[in-house]
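I'll show a typical protein example:
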Amino acid sequence: MGTENQNPLAFRRVLLKISGEALVGEQTFGIDVNVAKAVAEEIKQLHSLGLEVALVVGGGNIFRGVSASAGNMDRSAADYIGMLATVMNAVVLQDALENLKVQTRVMSAIDIPQLAEPFIRRRAIRHLEKGRIVIFAAGTGNPFFSTDSAAALRALEIKADVILKATKVDGIYTADPMKDKAATRFESITYQEVLEKQLKVMDASAISLCMDNDLPIIVFNMREAGNIARVVMSKSGIGTRVSLNKLVNSE
């Protein structure tokens, strides 16, 4: 890429995975536009560093195909409704980002031309190269696949350097830190360990896809202002890295 770039960034192109619940705020359901604005400001900070940024956002704040709210619905129908929820969240984030003067494109796996462009891999890459943020909506376009799997798939398709998994805790722990005070955080962990320990990082199909293609995942707390910049600058003590091999200095 040349030697003129002195920016101390660990990556060039990233895919940020955000849960739909991140947009709820203090509500129990739906979208808090003030929270969406705050999330957009964090994403803008990442983009301002010179990175090419793509997003996958979930829809759990509105509807989740495997949740109790789906009741006894047919799984395929419920999953399609969940995909539509991700489109709603994507358009909300697009609006919040464009209010911050950041060019953004929503690309949907389901054809909704009034709201989003269809997902075309080469076009998505071109948007990124032009400095636009790309939000991938509607999952993979297929039922029975989570937005975690969509994040892994899209990251590989656009040749992202890493998946940044935004959560409400500061990494992966030996147990739920909200319930177990003795839980300790991993600085790094392998894909195989995640699968063997059945850690709730991403679903098994997403982890397997990343493992097969050596695509690292960093799990971090996005609720702490500025963390997203610290992650891409490889600041120590931020998040947990999932890869084929543990970091040399990891416990």
Observations:
- Residues 1-6 have pLDDT under 50 and may be disordered.
- Helices lie at 33-48, 75-99, 121-129, 147-157, 191-197, 204-212, 227-232.
- Residues 42 and 71 are 35 Å apart (CA to CA).
- The longest strand covers residues 13-18.
